[in-house]
UniProtKB/TrEMBL annotation:
It is found in: Endomembrane system. This is Canalicular multispecific organic anion transporter 1-like. Keywords: ATP-binding, Membrane, Nucleotide-binding, Repeat, Transmembrane, Transmembrane helix, Transport. The chain crosses the membrane at residues 53-72, 99-122, 199-218, 290-309, 315-335. It is a multi-pass membrane protein. One of its GO terms (molecular function) is ATP binding. It comes from the Eukaryota.
Amino acid sequence: MSRGISLVSDTGRSVSLAGSLVGDVQENPERYQLVAKETVEEGSIKLQIYVNYFKHIGCLLTFSTLLFYISFRTLDITNGIWLSSWSQDNDTSPANRDFLLGVYAGIGLSQGLCNFFGVAFLTKATITASTNLHRLMLHSIMRAPLSFFDTTPMGRLLNRFGKDLDQLDVQLPMMANFTLEMFFQIIGMVVLISMKFPVFLLFAIPVLTLFVILRQIFVKTLRQVKRLESVTRSPIYSHFSETINGLTSVRGFGVEDVFRKKNDEKVDISQNCSFHVTVCNYWMSLRLELLGNIMIFVMVVLVVTNRQIIDAGTAGLLISYSLGAVVAFNFFVFFSTEVESTIIAAERLDEYTNVEPEALWSSNNRPSDDWPGRGEIEFRTYSTRYRNGLNLILHNINLTVQPLQKIGVVGRTGAGKSTLILTIFRILEGVEGKIFIDGVDIGKIGLHELRSRLTIIPQESVLFCSSLRFNLDPNDEYTDAQLWTALERAHLKQYFEGQNGLETEISEGGGNLSVGQRQLVCLARAVLRKTRILVLDEATAAVDLETDTLIQDTIRKVFRDSTILTIAHRVNTILDSDLVVVMAAGQIIETGQPQVLLQNPQSEFFSMAREAGLALTSAVSIAEKPIDWKTDSTASTSTSDNQKSSQI
């Protein structure tokens, strides 16, 4: 009767909690968004973005680049003036000819060198800035907390590291080169013509002002369209990546056309933005051509009306520079706009260089080298949430794990079992309360000091595309003998001896190994490290019963002197634990020895065991059967175990 009353009470609380949660979601939908909305800046690019970009380049490279471009354009104008002067020189003596030719050649050679070094320094400058931005962004992303990856799709990251970096690496150097050349060519043209016709300034100033106004209108529109174009690429990458990862399910359910249609829709949206970029360019091109032709007309009128005071060579030089200036104006507007549009990539990269990081990787408050020596874990009124603004996912956890205890943590889906493990590794930071390991507050030490002293075997094995040796010992800390011993204890020695030994190539994600073998490789890693605390996060949930038995047997033998926390998927795997912790809705609702809980029909653990189909009498007998954790029979692993491994 009391059991029924308790269930009714729990149901009432659950309904009340669900009702309040639904109301909160309706009032504050942004708090519960699974994917954060991608930021789209508006207006002109902030001055700080340019300042940061030039900081990544450095003052020396910036100054050297500008110096060579100014020198190149100065020599180009000097070359034209010298050639014009030479054409009017009536002295045809060999000495004078050789002198004029030598000076002309020297100016041309110097001009070529300045052009070469200007482009070289510009390329070096942009690559340096791009490299520094990539390094900072990579460091920022690698140090980002779990909440960042929960709300940021993979396609968005690929867009930043792919297309945005490509624009800074490839497009920006080319556009910046043309922009600088055209800018100094325009300045040179205005100075040269004004020296001959000062009245030209009266016309040049309003025309240049009109150029600037048109450019501002053009840039304002194009900049925002470019931003939209950048943002609309991310969904394409995300959708493609998700489709590839779930390709088996897509084909299995026969929904290829649905996913193809979604992909087409996302591509169409992106191409719509690209089309408007082209429209903006044509709009500006028409107006620039009109202004340019007006400038040429005015220049020709000035030359013709002043033909008595200027010679033919000078007239040709001025008209030639005017024609070149029109092209320069057009190119300058387009290329400078492209530079500003490309800097949007730096703006987007800069956003990801300032991601709020995890706690300090290493701190001055370092624990002793032999910490943790006992393996005691204590939760004191500990609460946490997945990210700011969300509800608590763990509530007032109070739990003490004694040294060398074997703890089984069970609960239904969403109970908070895996979250409890995340808090031990500080992947999730606490909101209230503290966690102590051997009396040390883990919140006050560096993440490296903490995580390097703990070992976890996850539910999904993580293997890298490299050799078996690298997957077991990436930092080259162990001898070959130790690696083979670990493989032997993980029941993999015979299998890899039949391959290429420690140099056996592992494909990406361990694709050339079975699920069971991948999990046994993770077990071998744990055997190598053999820390005082071992965490099993449903490590055998995805493997067959035979591999499950091998893993459990190795853990009992190798980690008999370690504290073990097991997140259980199968109730029978924790029946031999010293203590069972039952969780529900982020709280510990029950603790006790498994044999005691199984004898109490009102316990939650009893209910879970019954639902799992365990014969309660046999379950109790297993729970009461003493496990000899002190016996280590792994010194000589039987051949039959290796044969079992080779069949997994």
